Amino acid sequence: MCADLCCDEKCVHEDIVHKVEHHLPNDETLYDLAELFKVFGDSTRIKILYALFESEMCVCDIAELLNLTQSAISHQLRVLKSAKLVKARRSGKTVFYSLADEHVRLIINQGMEHILE
Amino acid sequence: MCADLCCDEKCVHEDIVHKVEHHLPNDETLYDLAELFKVFGDSTRIKILYALFESEMCVCDIAELLNLTQSAISHQLRVLKSAKLVKARRSGKTVFYSLADEHVRLIINQGMEHILE
DNA sequence: CTTTCATATGAACAAGTGTTCATATGTTTA
DNA sequence: TAAACATATGAACACTTGTTCATATGAAAG
Questions:
Q1: For range A12-40, the mean pLDDT
Q2: Mean pLDDT, 10 residues at a time, over chain B (117 residues)?
Q3: Pairwise CB contact (< 8 Å): B7 & A93
Q4: What is the pTM of this model?
Q5: Do B40 and A40 touch (CB under 8 A)?
């Protein structure tokens, strides 16, 4: 292991460690942030979000579009909803889902830019 | 399951499904995008990235900062590096890691905005 | 009320992930 | 060359996650 002084002139250590410690958001916030990105970290959910970029859609249509069971989509929409990435609107038996806000689009576009460069 | 026509006046279906189908990026791209977000979806990695916001750091310092083994950090840095989120610079025995580009900061800040609202 | 249909939920299982331990690689100094 | 040290890597393990199947809930139509 590193013994407090593992380098020569370029040494940062102690100082940096303490400086960074003070600038780190608290653990709970960082945990929540990771949880948010975890939601984006599944291709089914990404596809659902991309689909909702175009228009609100009901569960069965998304299922048909992505060739997955209605149950799978419903489970995933639940995840997206509790992360406040989508919202639901009921119309009779049907429930229409749509993007909760524009953050979703921004985050995804930023990610897309990264992988396309 | 949904039988092609599950609603009344508000019906979208077929039309929307086909329209959205054409606008969806291809499967591989969507998969890669999900893989990218998966990398952000772990609080250890988020903490590492946040630490690197302040300054480049070597492996053992990050390990000390986050109270994790050097091995754990090294494994995670490998993940971050293959996603091109961080880059490495060797100086003697020590390897300093830093953010690969400004996308990282943008994506994380966007995520942070979402959870803080 | 009963049936039908869209959606939600719970259990179960396979597949994936993050950490630790042990050890290898590579660099510097004695 | 040998010892010391920072980092990397592989195997193993517990833990998490996404899907399916079966079934429950809730709304509209007969």
A1: 89
A2: 42 72 93 98 98 95 96 98 98 97 95 94
A3: yes
A4: 0.91
A5: yes
Strand segments (E) across B1-117: 57-58, 86-91, 94-99
Tokens encoding B106: 């943008």
Of B114, B116, B111, B117, the residue nearest B49 (C-alpha): B111
Q: Taken in order A57, A58, A64, A66, is the CA torsion positive or negative?
A: positive
CB contact under 8 A, B65 and A20: yes
Of B45, B57, B92, the CB nearest to A16: B57
Q: Which residue of A has its CA nearest to B18?
A: A65
Which 26-65 residues of chain B touch chain A by CB within 8 A? 27, 29-43, 45-47, 50-51, 53-61, 63-65
